[in-house]
């Protein structure tokens, strides 16, 4: 086994670097998906506007969290899913409000 200047294995460092690269790529993919979600939210907002509905629907948000929890509960708690998705919901609402502001 080859060791680097810090006493760590070079092989392990390469594995760690490769895993970090994979994680970085997934992070970028997640942001692409969040961006796609934001575009769908804007389309939904327009449809709701035509029907006289409000943008904010806390019942829907809770249903999303509950559904995701049921699917991913072996890995994530419901509160962890909320911590992940509440900021996305908040950003979605902000995006909708910004879109409605006069230019």
Describe this structure in words.
It contains three helices and no strands. It has helices at residues 10-50, 58-72, 78-100. It has a single domain, classed as Up-down Bundle (Chorismate Mutase Domain, subunit A). By secondary structure, the protein is mainly alpha-helical.
Structural class: mainly alpha
Secondary-structure element order, as H and E?
HHH
Total helix count? 3
**CATH classification class:** Mainly Alpha
Q: How many strands, which pairing sense, and closed or not: the largest β-sheet? A: none
CATH topology descriptor = Chorismate Mutase Domain, subunit A
In CATH, what is the homologous superfamily? Chorismate mutase
Task: Give the total of domains.
Answer: 1
What's the count of strands? Answer: 0
- Beta-strand content estimate: under 5%
GO molecular function, one term: chorismate mutase activity
Protein name: chorismate mutase
Domain Chorismate mutase: 10-100
Keywords: Coiled coil
List its salient traits:
103 residues, mainly alpha, Chorismate Mutase Domain, subunit A, 0% strand
Compose a concise summary of this entry:
GO terms for molecular function: chorismate mutase activity. The protein is mainly α. The protein has 3 helices and no strands.
Architecture blueprint of SSEs:
Layout lengths: L9 H41 L7 H15 L5 H23 L3
Helix pairs in contact: 1-3, 2-3
